[in-house]
Amino acid sequence: MPEEKRKADENLQKVYEGVAMIDTVFLKGLEGASIKKFVPTGEKFDPNMHNAMFEIPAAEGQEKGMVGHVVKSGYMIYDRVLRPAEVGVTKEAPK
Fold it and tell me: Phi/psi of residue 10, each to 5°?
C-alpha cells in the first residue's frame, strides 16, 4: 500500500500497523518450527524451489532464466520446500 495513502488516513495507518504486527508474529512462530520464508528475486530459476507463472523480458544486462518477479513467497522447513515461490522468469529480450 502506498505510504502517502496510509499517512492521509489515520484509521488506515492503524489497520496497516496491526496487519504488519500480525505478520511479524506469524513469521516468528513459523521460525520457531524451523520454517523460513524465502523471496528469490534475482536468483537463477530452480524448478525444485520455484513455480514459473509467466515470462518477462530480461532487462538490459540481465541473464535469461532468472527470477525477475515474485508473485508469492516460498516457504522451507530446514532444506525442504514446503511451498515453492510463484515467480516470473526472465526470457531473452526481443530484438
Answer: -60, -40
